[in-house]
Please model this.
Amino acid sequence: MKTAKKNNGKKVFAYRLGDNTEIEKKLLGENKIRLNDDGSYEVFSREATTGTGEKAYAGDYIKLDSGGYPYPNEKNFFESHHRKLADGTYEQIPIEVSVWTADDGMCDEVRFLIREKSLKINEADPDRYFAAPLWGTTLTAARDAVIVFYEIKRDEDGKISDADFNFVERNEFNKTYTVIS
Model:
């Protein structure tokens, strides 16, 4: 696995769900987000290809990628990893993460995802090479996507006990992260 870091000074556009902003209304109208009867949201990112959006709730944030696709961020995670700027945008606080691609050799962390987190690798379909249950739906990603590990928890013996991860489309990864090792 490699280590990557969010780019310094990266500005992002983000909006809190439930605030009834113009962007929220626009995304609802474009069916990029859906408000459910129970008050939860479905967010249709690039990777939400199964007809069900990623689960989010009022108070959570959505960030827009360079193609205008929304991505949910849980409220506490977002607020601890971004700072609001005077112009209304947010700056990402650079953090180091572990990353893996299909061209990297198999590692214990990815084996853990396959065994414990239901990660599927479909070598027959390069456009839907990766699939995993994330954010309340099944997300898929192309073979050139990057698996980003936001956190890997280990027990007292050093064995992996949990991992928080997601898929990041390659072009978006290249704009947002710098590989440092």
Notes: The CA atoms of residues 10 and 91 lie 6 Å apart. The helical segments are 22-29, 75-81, 108-116, 170-176.
